[in-house]
C-alpha cells in the first residue's frame, strides 16, 4: 500500500510503537509494524489527520487483532 503523508505516518507509528512496546504488547515486530502502518494509512485515506487519534486507533485495532489471533 502506498504510504500517505510520510511524516504523519511516521510520527503516529512511533507513538503507537512506544506505547505498545512500553506495555510489552508487541509480539512479532515485523507483523506489528506492518499492521500499524497499514491501519494508520487506512485512517489517513479516510480523512483522519490528527496524530494522536491515528495512534490511539491503531493501538486499539492492534490490541483487538492480537486478541482475535
Report the radius of gyration as a whole number of Å: 11 Å
| Helix percentage range | over 70%
Please report the total strand number as a whole number: 0
Globally, the shape reads globular
What is the terminal-to-terminal distance? 23 Å
Identify low-pLDDT runs: none
Category by helix and strand content: mainly alpha
Number of domains as seen in the coordinates = 1
Beta-strand proportion: under 5%
Kindly report the average pLDDT value.
Answer: 94
Commentary on this structure:
The chain is mainly α. The protein has one domain. The chain has 3 helices and no strands. It has helices spanning 6-22, 29-45, 51-68. Helix 1 (6-22) packs across helix 2 and helix 2 (29-45) packs across helix 3.
Amino acid at each position: 500500500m502506498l504510504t500517505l503523508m510520510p511524516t504523519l505516518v511516521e510520527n503516529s507509528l512511533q507513538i503507537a510503537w512506544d506505547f505498545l512496546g512500553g506495555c510489552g504488547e508487541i509480539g512479532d515486530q515485523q507483523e506489528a509494524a506492518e499492521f500499524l502502518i497499514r491501519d494508520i494509512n487506512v485512517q489517513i485515506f479516510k480523512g483522519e489527520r490528527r496524530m494522536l487519534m491515528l495512534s490511539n486507533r491503531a493501538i486499539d485495532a492492534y490490541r483487538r487483532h492480537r486478541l482475535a489471533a
